[in-house]
Amino acid sequence: MGLYRLSLVLVILLGLLVHVMCVGETNSTCSLAAAKSPHLRLNRYLFCDYDITVRPVIHHKNATNISIHFDPLRIDFMDESSTFILHTWNTWSWMDEFLTWNPKDFDGINETRVESAKIWTPDLALYNSADMTETQIGIPSVPCILVNDGQLVCIAPVKYVTHCTTDFTYWPYDEQTCNIRLSSWNNHALDINIDYNNSTIEMGYYKTNNEWDVRAFILKEHVKYYDCCPETFWSTIVPTFILRRHPSMVHTIFITTAFVFTLITLTVSYLDARSNERVLLSMLNFVCHVLIISVLHWVLPHNGPNGSPHLLLFYRDSWIIATFEIALTALLRRLQSTRRNLPYWLIFTVSLIEGNRICRFLLLGEQVDVDDGKLFIAINGSSPSEIDDENASLSDVNLQNSSKNLASDSWRKVTIIIERLVLIFVAFTYLMLFIVLIPREQS
């Protein structure tokens, strides 16, 4: 029993000895700072019992206000992945109530440099990150400026990678709106509040991009409440950038080509259906449309739920017109070679057109002799009394041959009317396509 008591006393004495040694060593370390340089004494004074896991406020109900200043250096936007990349210098500023001192006690030192890894830093996170392989929470390890009143300023280069909701409807004159969303990862706004009023964006150090212009930049603040915690809210700062594409090279390739294809298609409509030039040009026009649409398939980014870009829709509709021109050319060539008499409704329609000078000029493009018109009507079933006496004296064989020739000429007039109507229709269709689908540079 006596041995047990003796052992217990020894253990207690040993514990007291260890405690005294540890406390003495700590006090010795902090007290040794008094014998060193002013900066070293200040460092020991500030960090002797500093805890980086504790939010630096004396009263825990007070919020820590964080202001952020953005100085973008470079902006990249990747079409294929709808990824926005922002390279920027960020300046974070907040008050640390645990890191204050009287400059008179340290030879007039009113500011010093401290490593961000040695102090409490806000756990700001990129909420719309597109690169989950990198942890973008907190502030990078950099030297920070500490002022004697507790003001901390940390400046560091940062790369933000986010995903944009893109819209390529008006490609190559499209504009993309991209943003980054920064907020505290674990603390609501009653603990860590992003001071929107003192946060700014400046483009003084920005280096222009060869493909994109920064048309505008806006700094927004979003406040969100959650059903789980109605008494608290989360504050999010949202720098937003509106980007506009440089369309110079793409404009030369695809917009100019649209005008060229339009002229080719109109030329096909204007040419005589009997000419081999029309057949060859219509086939060439069709092949060129196939090639340009294939190229656009690889060049154009996918537009997602916003539908196809207007430029692709223009070439699609122009391709349909080119296909229609090929089918129409084959049909008109077939009609011009027929020997059958015209139906009565076609006879009536053509006679009305021939009787109107404006329609005759626009659709037939030539003056038609009235006697020819009478003969045209007579041969196709009108009253024989309208045929001249000289024509009535022809032999039956000559009359039959003449009837076939006149029937062929009648179908020729019908095809001319169809060609002119199609030309007007195609020209009007392209006019509408240019107004609706050809993108234009916005002011």
TrEMBL record:
Gene3D superfamilies in UniProt: Neurotransmitter-gated ion-channel ligand-binding domain
Record-linked Pfam families: Neur_chan_LBD
GO molecular function terms noted in the UniProt entry: extracellular ligand-gated monoatomic ion channel activity; transmembrane signaling receptor activity
GO cellular component annotations of the record: membrane
Origin species: Nasonia vitripennis
This protein's UniProt keywords: Membrane, Signal, Transmembrane, Transmembrane helix
UniProt keyword rRNA-binding present: no
Location of the Neurotransmitter-gated ion-channel ligand-binding domain: 41-247
Protein name, UniProt field: Neurotransmitter-gated ion-channel ligand-binding domain-containing protein
Annotated TM spans: 249-271, 283-300, 312-332, 421-438
Signal peptide span: 1-22
